[in-house]
Every structure is written in structure tokens, then in C-alpha cells.
Amino acid sequence: MNRLRQYFRTKDLKTQGHTQQKGFPPALYFACISIVAALCLALLCWTLRLAYGSVVFQSREPEAIERATRLDPWNASYFAALATRSDPATGDEAMRRATELDPLNSDYWIQRGIRAEFSGDLKSAERFYLEASRVSRLFAPRIALANFYFRQGDREQFWKWARAAFEISFGDLDGAFLLCWQVAPDAQVILDRALPRDPRTLAQFLNFVVRREGVEAGQPVAEELVKRADAASRDALLNDCDELLDGKRFSEAHEIWLGLARRGLVTATGTGAEKNLVYNASLDTVPLHHGFDWNVIPGPEVLVAPDGNPGEIAVSFTGKQPEECEILSQIVALDAGGSYRFSFQGRTLSPSDPGLTWLIEDAGTHRELARLPMAQSEDWAPQTSQLRAPQPAFIRLVLKYQRRIGTVRYEGRVVVRQVQLGGPN
User: Fold this and answer.
1) Are 201 and 225 a contacting pair, CB within 8 Å?
2) What span, in angstroms and rounded, lies between the C-alpha atoms of 238 and 251?
3) pLDDT digit string (tens) for 314-365?
4) Which segments of 153-233 does DSSP mark as H helices, in order?
């Protein structure tokens, strides 16, 4: 203000080599000051008015909201709120005013579409929904259009806008999947007509279908997803694999597992003459507890972990474990019928009988195919068993603890290595 006053009072004018002082008329000076003060006062009053309107609006009562629209007639959100708390005629006019004030807000256009649709004005409703999709490239306007065409029975337009919605979707999509399922309760149809080949979307859809209809209905989705699976979608396929195994659909589960291996999402088993059919045999990686990896049965009295030496697994017992319990289990795919050889090496760090046995049983019928008890030995003791599979099959490999008759519960550590299943010979 001081600089402004100095400027208006004097101004240097250079003429013919010397400076002259030119005075500024006091009346003009005071007029300028008055105008600035008036503008500041008006701005302050307007700010206070807007603030008061915001306070009035907070009560959310219809009368208060209407008063807030008079205090701040350029606030579109006040008119949108008034529309939801007024009679139909007042609400329609309030929403029209909201879209005038904020024409790029797709939510307001969607609300106008809903109001027009339920009042029976379908042409206006469609126009409002389309305007929402024009001003916004997001998911909500497109799924709103899909809903509109679903209610009108226009299947072609429904699939068009459902696909457009899924192409830019994010977050939880179960509501959109349910809408599609009401139109066509067939996973393959929805895959073909609505879903982009995006692993994230396919993973959500797989979970939705399996929860709703079971693994059989979800197989087309799983087959499509496994071709494009990534780290983010792996869990959906692993869960589907578990559901298939629980239902004894071993071949389909194995195909998913092999697909994950091809995508580098699980480690593939070895190949060639020395192929070991046991997956993650030495617990080199943390067991997934899914699919064809180890299932480590949890329990506070038994601890299973890598021993620290490459290829060795340590099992520690507190002596308070149940008299009979499974420690490790894994479903193993046998390539063909024939004779197979199972072997391992073990040693005990306690002089008593460890009570451990490797069991091999048919995964479908649980019929025992082979049994290989672990001997008590402080040195590495190789042990081998033969089994015969008449055809390609799936077996369940189990490390089981059972207290031997006449002994106490085992307490101490047991170390196992070189767990191998090879063949057929």
C-alpha cells in the first residue's frame, strides 16, 4: 500500500535534463482507495456468505439445502443434494441445474438418466446416460448404460457397453459379473462377449464363477487365464487347482499346474533320465500349500523347515505332538503305467525310534501302494521302495508320524534328504 501511495503522489518526469515533480490529485487518490476498499469488503462478504452456505448445507435437511442453493447458486453439489431430498418435479429441476453448472460431472448425468428412466421417459434417459459416457471415460457411465439396456431387454447394446465397461474396469467387479450372469449364465458366453483378455479381470471372473457355480463351470475361464497368467493372477489359478484336486479332477488340475510352470509362475519339475517327480523335493523354495507343491501340516509341536544344508529337510518334534499325524503331503503325477522307484535318505539325532513313515497311496481312492518306514540311524541311511502303477495316475506322497507300540513320543530332530520318485523303468 505504501508503494501504491508513493506512486500516486509523485512521478518523476524527465524533461530537458532536469526532473520535475508532478502532484497527484487528492480526490482521485481517495477515489481509488475507496474502490479498492469496497472490492475487498465485497470479497469478504461473499466469502462469509459462501462459508455460511456451507454451514447451512451440513444439516442435510431439505429446507437447509434449498437455502444453501440460494446462498451459493453456483454450487452444483448443492443442487444435486437437493434433488435427492425433494419431490420429483423439484428434484428434476435441481438435477438439470446441477448439470448446467457442472456439465463434465458424469454422476450428475447418470442421476438425470435414472430419474428420467423411472418416470418413463426412456429416450431422455438414454440421452443422459450417453452424455455421461461422453464426458467421462471411466467405468461408472458404461456400466450404467449396460444396466439401462439390460432393463430394456436390448441384449446387443448390453454386451457392447458391458465390454466397454470391463475394458476400463478396476476394483471389485463382482456386481458387473453378476449382471452379465443374469443375462447369460454361461462363463464361455461372457468370456466371448464381454471380457477383455486381461489377467486381472479374468482372475476375478474365475473366482466369481467358482464361488457361484463350482470348478466345472469355471474351467473355460481357467483355460483362458492360464495362457496369460501373471504374478497377480496366479493365486486365482492356484485356488482353482486346489478346488479341482478336492473334487478329484486331477488331470484338469495338473494341466493348470503345467500352464503355471510354462509361464514361470511355479518351478517346473526336472526332465530326462534323472527326472524327479517330487516337486520342490528339498524345500528349496517356501511351499505354496497349493496344487502339486508340498502341503506342510501346521502344528505347534512339529516344525518342518530346510536344515540349512542344501537339499536337506529337518523335522523337529517337541515330544508333545499327537500320537499320529501327517507332517508333509503332496499330490504327484505319474507320467505312465509301470514300475516306479521311491527313495530317500534319513538320519535321526536322537537314539529313539522316530516313528516316521513315507506312505504312497492312490490320490483318488486312498488305497495304499507302498510304505517305507524310516529307520533309526545317526548316519545317513538310504532307503528305497518300489511301486507299480498300471496306468497314468496320481498318487499322494505322505510323511506320517505315528508313535510305535511300546515307545514314547519322539522328541528331537530328524533330517531327510534326496527324496526322489523316478520311473517308470
Assistant:
1) no
2) 14
3) 899 998 999 999 999 999 998 777 788 999 999 888 778 889 999 999 998 8
4) 155-167, 174-183, 187-193, 199-213, 215-226
CA distances from 335 to 30, 294, 382, 423 (A): 101, 19, 25, 8
β 356-362/324-334 pair status: unpaired
3-class SS of residue 218:
helix
H or E element that contains 28: helix 26-57
Q: Can you say how many angstroms the Cα of residue 305 is from the centroid of all Cα atoms in its chain?
A: 30
Distances (CA, A) of 1 to 8, 10, 39, 361: 11, 14, 15, 94
The set of cell numbers assigned to 175 is 456386481
Cell of 219: 474351467
Three-class DSSP labels, 349-393:
CCCCCCCEEEEEEECCCCCEEEEEECCCCCCCEEEEEEEEECCCE
**Are 84 and 104 in contact, with CB atoms under 8 Å apart?**
no
Element (H, E) at 18: strand 18-21
Q: 227 near 259, Cβ under 8 Å? A: yes
d(CA 76, CA 82): 10
> Tens of pLDDT along 253-282?
999 999 999 999 998 665 544 678 999 888
The Cα–Cα gap between 22 and 12 comes to 7
| C-alpha count within 13 angstroms, C-beta hemisphere, residue 281 | 21
Residues 396 and 360: beta-carbon distance below 8 Å: yes
Q: What is the pLDDT of residue 256?
A: 95
pTM exceeding 0.85: no
The DSSP bridge partners found for residue 277 are none
| C-alpha cell belonging to residue 60 | 442435510
CB atoms within 10 A of CB 42: 10
- Residue 142 one-letter amino acid: R
Out of 49-53, 169-173, 344-348, which region has the weakest mean confidence (pLDDT)? 49-53
The pLDDT of residue 210 is above 90: yes
- 36, three cell numbers: 479498492
What value does the mean pLDDT take over residues 294-308? 82
For residue 94, give the 3-state DSSP assignment: helix
